[in-house]
Amino acid sequence: MNDTENRLREYLQTTAGTVPDAAQGPGLQQDVTGKRGWVPIVLAAATIGAVLVLAVPFLTRLADKEPTAAGSPAALPTGPVSTGAPRIPYAVTVNNNPDNPLDTWWAVIQDGKQKVGNPGVKGEVLARLGGGWLVMTGYPDPTKSQAAIVDPEGKVTPLGPTGGIYPVISPDGRQLAVAVAPYAAKDSRVVVVNVEDGKETAKLDIPMPNIKLIGWNKDGIWLMPELVDSRPVSVWQPGADQPRPVGELGPAGDLQVVRSSDVVAQLSAKGTDGYCAKAGTLGAKGLELKREYCFKTAGTNQAAVYVALSPDGRTMVLSTRVAVHIATGKATKLGIPAKFGGWTWNSAVFEDPATVIVVADTRGVKPLEQKMFRCSVTTGECKAILTAKANESLAAVRP
């Protein structure tokens, strides 16, 4: 747990004592496009609705056919890594700012030559969208959370209902979906809106609490209940009456869905210090496994382990500084110095299918240093392209 999370926990515990029993408690936004959301302080007991009862184990069937040779490592560029400015957006947070006591919302968005100061948004920057950038605001009160677009002039346009969390973008970028899952409520709702005019186009009521949206690809919107040991995953195609059951994630599992590919990546614990990263696609009987890569974390300076998936669905990057090519299983060690072991869920964002941007820090090593690296997933070459100032922190943003 990092310093920000510790400060947030202390803040929430203090605040919780002042909240009436009938009120909705504050929460923690951890992810979005991919992404975690507002996490209540106390979990309400709930029974998972029958509509999401699982039909098959998650990511266990082998694919009938191997991917074609077009997905081989040779198909990706292998030239030298550039030290130029990042081609993805990134956000800058000013640490220990009295106007931002929890260090949880950004101060500046930098995207190429565009630089936009925070116009009063309390939340994080998630992705490019609608001629600007998708952000979340309302932090840390989940009842006020809402997706919004900040344009290059700093104008904020709310998008979707108040209380919306876990925003995910449609494959064509024209729509956005959010979950509405009020604290202590027994039911949740998924709401789909147009990015251009904010008009609601579809919704789904689900008889379970704490719904999390994972991502949206051609198969539909991937979702699951959060904060429970048994987490059934399902996929809902907007307009359908019910979601389709897919499989189940354990309490330590994580799932990555990118809107530009039908491949999804799962990370799950194996033993006390082991993990397995799996990639698969949705078939007629559930998820079909394309690749599994298992590894140990002992001695790797990893407080937690994360996986990122390339936009073409051909490569997984692990926070153990390894890129795994899904078609061949080739594992390439990324040349990031070992002392930079501080990764978070959104530390790795692909700039293009061949290069990944990684933001890492020397957590546990003083003085704390944070750098942004550009790495080739085919050669493993990495070069530092940005260094955070002593009182600032960087966060990569999805293009």
Describe this protein's structure.
Helix content is about 5%, strand content about 40%. The chain has about 400 residues and is mostly beta strands. Strand 9 (about 145-150) and strand 10 form a beta hairpin. It starts with a helix and ends with a strand. The model is unreliable at about 1-55 and about 60-75 (pLDDT under 50).
What descriptive keywords fit this protein?
mainly beta, 4-stranded antiparallel sheet, 4% helix, globular, 399 residues, 5-stranded mixed sheet, disordered N terminus, 1 helix
Topology readout:
Elements: H1 3-16, E1 27-29, E2 38-40, E3 61-62, E4 90-94, E5 108-111, E6 114-117, E7 125-129, E8 132-137, E9 146-150, E10 156-159, E11 164-169, E12 175-180, E13 188-194, E14 200-206, E15 211-217, E16 220-225, E17 231-236, E18 244-249, E19 254-257, E20 263-270, E21 274-283, E22 286-296, E23 307-309, E24 315-318, E25 322-325, E26 331-333, E27 348-352, E28 355-361, E29 370-376, E30 382-387, E31 392-396
Parallel strand pairs: 3-22
Antiparallel strand pairs: 1-2, 4-5, 4-31, 5-6, 7-8, 8-9, 9-10, 11-12, 12-13, 13-14, 15-16, 16-17, 17-18, 19-20, 20-21, 21-22, 23-24, 24-25, 25-26, 27-28, 28-29, 29-30
Give a short summary of the structure.
By secondary structure, this protein is mainly beta.
Radius of gyration: 20 Å
Low-confidence stretches: 1-56, 61-74
Estimate the global geometry from the Cα principal axes.
Answer: globular
Give the DSSP E fraction (strand runs of 2 or more residues): 35-45%
- Which structural class is indicated by helix and strand composition? mainly beta
Percent range of helical residues: under 10%
Please, what is the average pLDDT? 82
Distance between the termini: 27 Å
**Number of E-state strands:** 31
Instruction: Output the strand order for the largest sheet.
Output: 3-22-21-20-19
Output the number of helix runs: 1
* Biggest beta sheet attributes: 5 strands, mixed
